[in-house]
């Protein structure tokens, strides 16, 4: 696996670098350590570039997780949310890793992260926790859409799920449930109706896993009535999850305002690391022109179903074991503002 990790030498980006080293060790991969110098093409910026080159080499030498990991330092001038996707596409990167706070991001950092996700040619891992070992508990929310299928395929193909306990979560709604009480329907009948919806959701999830060739992976399934945002937050805290893997529809404009975005909600709240799987692009992977380097040598499905229902009063949920057991900077002033304290 080829991993590009963004660094500005801050504590937050240090978490990202360490996580990249752990993932590279798991997969026998390579790490490209990238720093973006923001500023005009001036003598002062050239000095910043030379200093960044020196610090990047030092970081490779001192981070223990990078020991014996093939590493390539890369320093470029430009806008982080543009240069990082460019470098990832030019080098056939499999995963981009960036550091972020375990708390909710600021307005500027959130905008930069959204811009990066929308233009990235590969999955992006947002490292928010201290990295000391491979992921042990991974949560993959699915809404039975193409985005969920991409998330499952990526989790299966990347080595970060190896050895981890993986839970696939589906939040479902029982249409018309709130009206049944008004028609004097007995409580046990309402509960039976909800259980029927739960069983149908479990079948749909099983079909989704089978469609991407993952039905036999031994992952747990969890069906929960309510909104996706609330279900993810509850289960991620209950497990507790080290990593949440989620596909994004990357909606913009009116549709996004109308439907909301589960992905943005997960990113806007603190907690576990988050891996975002961006949409596929027409014709395959995005391709960009090569970035402006600063002195380093060349390196080498099921139908969509939205889950936006109202949470149940009881927050009922059911955990089932595996089936066999039942481009714009946006006014960026500096890279450090967005990926560092």
Share in helix:
25-40%
Mean pLDDT: 78
Unreliable sequence segments: 252-260, 282-318, 320-341
Which percent band covers the strand fraction?
15-25%
Content-based structural category: alpha/beta
Strand order of the largest sheet: 3-2-1-4-5-10-9-6-7-8-11
How many domains, in number, for the residues?
1
What does this structure look like?
- By secondary structure, the chain is an alpha/beta fold.
- It has one domain: 3-Layer(aba) Sandwich (Rossmann fold), CATH 3.40.50.
- About 40% of the residues lie in helices and about 20% in strands.
- It has helices at about 10-25, 45-60, 80-90, 105-120, 145-155, 175-180, 185-210, 230-240, 255-260, 260-270, 335-340; strands spanning about 1-5, 30-35, 70-75, 95-100, 125, 135-140, 165-170, 220-225, 245, 275, 315-320.
- It has an eleven-stranded mixed β-sheet, with helices on both faces.
- Strand 1 (about 1-5), helix 1 (about 10-25) and strand 2 (about 30-35) form a beta-alpha-beta unit.
- The longest helix has 25 residues, at about 185-210.
- The radius of gyration is 21 Å and the shape is elongated.
- It starts with a strand and ends with a helix.
- The model is unreliable at about 250-260, about 280-320 and about 320-340 (pLDDT under 50).
Helix and strand arrangement:
Layout: E1 2-6, H1 11-27, E2 30-37, H2 43-62, E3 71-77, H3 80-90, E4 95-99, H4 107-119, E5 124-127, E6 137-141, H5 146-157, E7 165-172, H6 177-180, H7 187-211, E8 220-225, H8 228-238, E9 243-247, H9 253-259, H10 262-268, E10 273-277, E11 317-320, H11 336-339
Parallel strand pairs: 1-2, 1-4, 2-3, 4-5, 6-7, 6-9, 7-8, 9-10
Antiparallel strand pairs: 5-10, 8-11
Helix pairs in contact: 3-4
């Amino acid at each position: 696996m080829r991993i590009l990790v963004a660094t500005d030498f801050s504590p937050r980006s240090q978490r990202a670098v360490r996580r990249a080293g752990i993932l590279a060790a798991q997969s026998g991969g390579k790490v490209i350590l990238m720093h973006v110098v923001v500023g005009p093409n001036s003598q002062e910026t050239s000095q910043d570039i030379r200093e960044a080159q020196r610090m990047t080499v030092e970081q490779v030498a001192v981070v223990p997780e990078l020991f014996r990991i093939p590493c390539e330092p890369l320093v470029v001038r430009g806008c982080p949310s543009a240069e990082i996707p460019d470098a990832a596409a030019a080098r056939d990167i499999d995963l981009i890793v960036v550091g972020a706070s375990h708390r909710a991001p600021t307005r500027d950092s959130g905008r930069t992260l959204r811009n990066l996700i929308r233009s990235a040619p590969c999955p992006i891992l947002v490292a928010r926790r201290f990295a000391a070992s491979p992921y042990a508990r991974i949560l993959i929310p699915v809404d039975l859409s193409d985005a969920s299928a991409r998330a499952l395929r990526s989790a299966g193909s990347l080595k970060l799920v190896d050895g981890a306990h993986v839970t696939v979560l589906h939040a479902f709604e029982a249409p018309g449930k709130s009206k049944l009480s008004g028609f004097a329907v007995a409580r046990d009948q309402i509960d039976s109706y909800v259980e029927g919806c739960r069983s149908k959701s479990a079948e749909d999830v099983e079909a989704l896993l089978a469609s991407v060739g993952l039905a036999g992976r031994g992952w747990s399934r969890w069906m929960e009535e309510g909104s996706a945002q609330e279900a993810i937050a509850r289960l991620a805290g209950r497990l507790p999850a080290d990593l949440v893997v989620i596909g994004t529809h990357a909606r913009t404009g009116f549709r996004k305002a109308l439907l909301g975005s589960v992905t943005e909600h997960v990113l806007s709240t603190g907690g576990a690391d988050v891996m975002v799987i961006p949409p596929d692009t027409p014709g395959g992977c995005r391709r960009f022109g090569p970035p402006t380097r600063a002195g380093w040598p060349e390196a080498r499905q099921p139908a969509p179903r939205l889950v936006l229902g109202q949470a149940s009063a009881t927050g009922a949920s059911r955990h089932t074991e595996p089936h066999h057991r039942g481009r714009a900077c946006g006014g960026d002033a500096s890279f450090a503002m967005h990926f560092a304290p």
